[in-house]
Amino acid sequence: MSRSVQHPDTGPVMTDPMRHPSGASSPVRTKRAFVLLLMTLLVPGSAQIVAGNRKLGRNVLRVTLVVWAVLVATVLLLVINRALLINVITDPFASLAIIVVLVALALGWAFLFINTLRLIRPVLLAPRARPAVVISLVLALVLSSGTLGYAAYLLNVGRNAIGSIFSSGPSIDPVEGRYNFLMMGGDAGDDRTGRRPDSLSVLSVDAKSGRTAIISVPRNLQNAQFSEGSPMREIYPDGYNCGDACLINAINTEVTNEHADLYPGVADPGAQATLEAVSGTLGLTVQAYVLVDMEGFAKLIDAMGGIRIKAGGWVPMSGFFDEVTRTHGMPLGWIPAGEQTLDGDHALWYGRSREYVDDYARIQRQQCVQQAMLKQLDPAKLLSKFEDIASAGTKVVDSNISSSQLGSFVDLAIKAKGQEVKRLTIGPPDFDASFSTVPDFDIIHDKVDQLLASATAPEAAAPDDGMVQASYVGGPLQASGPPRPAAGLAAGWAAQQTPPPSSDFVPVTTTPDGEPITEALLNRLKREGNEQAIGELVATNGLCAPL
């Protein structure tokens, strides 16, 4: 409250410097200015109560208390039910409401600072103090209204990305305690109708613990079985068995071009049919798919800041392919063996290159890239690069996962972080390379069951090496497809080895004579046409572990 004293010459004078700064000394006025700014920053409305419009101050203070209560409730919800909180934030209507509230709060806070500046009355300040007060006001505005406005902007970016990538369909339930997602990577180039997947893998996640298993399906698997209820089962009741052209990765294009009418109301019939083929082949229910355009994949890796891996051997970034000689030209570059940090372009090459080795080495590298992304995308990095990641995601990813379940799945991803990932490949090193041509689906189902049992059991009971120790079915490993130099050597090496622990291997960085393997050495051998020597030196490039 203001107090008054009787001045002998001029009468009563108000002595409260907060409300009546004109009678205060210059240092007191300066101190008062900074105190009012700090009060507006820390307890919005309090400056108006002590120095301005008390009614305005009380109303703003009520809003401040409500906001504090909401923040406390949010923190409690983060601890008690993180999935529910994420679902609220990712819900299109709830997120829009939050954006509107954040913008309103930002504008209201900015208005309060302008009102506080009026209360400060800069004309009463010493000339030297005025710039400091103005600078402090601008910084406080950036810290308060600017932060709220930027939060609203990021939330809107995420809201748009979620709407572009994820569906608005019904949510899915776990099957036998697990969520199974089909991850497809391929190109949708000008020379293709639809996206023909170059990589297929199922990410199976325990609904409670987040323990994860990755099952890789080779793109050249034949006679794929469609699941019960699949429309394609009526056309191929005995499996996708129309000859050598009927590889599992051709289903997407065939259904897109010829059988889309079998999937009325389905946004991507080719992807859905591929999901049904993978389900029937593996003997488990795959509930949703995530389709990644590989040409845009590099952008997502770059947005993450790259990935860190331990590479078992040198990987070529292949040059042009000569259809006559069936060989590649001089590589555009090489990815060395050892510990590497890969940007998007190099990560893409690392996951796609199959020169000198077979498809199964490539599958192992793709698994490694997937694990590195899951392991290294931590919450701090996600927040710091949120806009870039969201922007890249809208250009790279498509999915039929319902946006209403993102909270649950993000929560599972957080639980899975740091846990060992179990792996199985329907090919080397877990099956003979020829197995994909004449697969035995009973054996596949048994191996998948074993894998999921190990990924569900407590960690103490799981195998030490994180791999499913599948026996090799059908004899020694042989390279599939057209013969490649040193493919037999690589396969023979793999057949004699027990799958190594996740990172317990020594990268091959020297020749048998002890000479360091360098890009110059590999390029010299390439110019000399010594493809076999290169194949021997890079035969172990399927070995990989995320760091």
Key structural traits:
alpha+beta, disordered N terminus, 2 domains, Aminopeptidase, 6-stranded mixed sheet
Q: How does CATH name the architecture of the largest domain?
A: 3-Layer(aba) Sandwich
Q: Which whole number gives the mean pLDDT?
A: 78
Rg, nearest Å:
31 Å
Give the number of helices: 19
Note the beta-strand portion.
5-15%
CATH topology of the largest domain: Aminopeptidase
Which strand order do you get reading across the main beta sheet? 13-6-3-4-5-14
Strand count, sense and barrel status of the largest sheet are: 6 strands, mixed
Structural commentary:
This protein has 547 residues and is α+β, with helices and mostly antiparallel strands. The chain folds into 2 domains: 15-165, no CATH class; 180-546, LCP protein (Aminopeptidase). It is built from 19 helices and 15 strands. It has a 6-stranded mixed β-sheet with strand order 13-6-3-4-5-14, sandwiched between helices. The protein has a 3-stranded antiparallel β-sheet with strand order 12-7-15. β9 (321-322) and β10 (327-328) form a beta hairpin. α6 (129-165) packs parallel to α14 (386-396) and α10 (294-304) runs antiparallel to α14 (386-396). The chain is elongated. The model is unreliable at 1-13, 189-193 and 459-501 (pLDDT under 50).
